[in-house]
Fold this protein.
Amino acid sequence: MATYAIGDVQGCYEPLQRLLAHINFDPQQDQLWFAGDLVNRGPQSLEVLRFIKNLGDSAISVLGNHDLHLLAMHYAKLNSRKSDTLNAIFAASDRDELLDWLRHQPLLHLDEAQNWCMTHAGLPPKWSATTAQKLAQEVEAILTSVDCSQFFENMYGNKPNRWSDNLSGFDRLRVIVNSLTRMRFVDEEGTLDLTSKEGLDTAPTGFKPWFEITPRQASATRLLFGHWAALNGQANAENVFALDTGCVWGGTLTALRLEDQQRFSVAATPA
């Protein structure tokens, strides 16, 4: 039995199938962990959702910002963006079933026995894995409730840009979501910069990649994250494993075998 963590699929169904063939994935024995952003920008988001949903207990997935955007479009009737490639999902006969399944996925997966934690964007330096899990569960309770449309109507925005235990309401939920699904650069006080999206050399003055801030409360926990294609799978920090290698941008799709940290990749397009 093996467990593989896979970076942002973003609708790249065909590369996903080639990657699973490459690692000889057996759903009867192995398990896949997906680091979020199952959908959008790629050509086959519908096929990706159906496939991962049908894997049942053989797959674990956390929500990414593109997954939440899809849910907001459905439950809050928000408009699409020019770069969205989600129309096939909305036209599908099983749309409601798929999106109900998606909104029941967590923002964070923590395996304390094996010392692994997975989120889409990482963990803020001031949060331990258990603190982050408790905060994620606050959002998950809203996502799975009948009031989820109100949350999605108030989800978007870059403010507040710093966590405080005193935050409440949608401000509190928004910071949790942004921290777990959109974060890249932070400063020593924990302020989020949510505008810079490229490589490490694009950090605004006074900001660093979240995994370079010290001390990190979760430094002893092995962290898996996607979201940041410009890193090309390289975080260069102890116990931090970047998984997004830019498949949707013409790069590769990568799986990390958790038992020995060996990486496996396939190109976005067949050779």
The first strand starts at residue 3 and ends at 6.
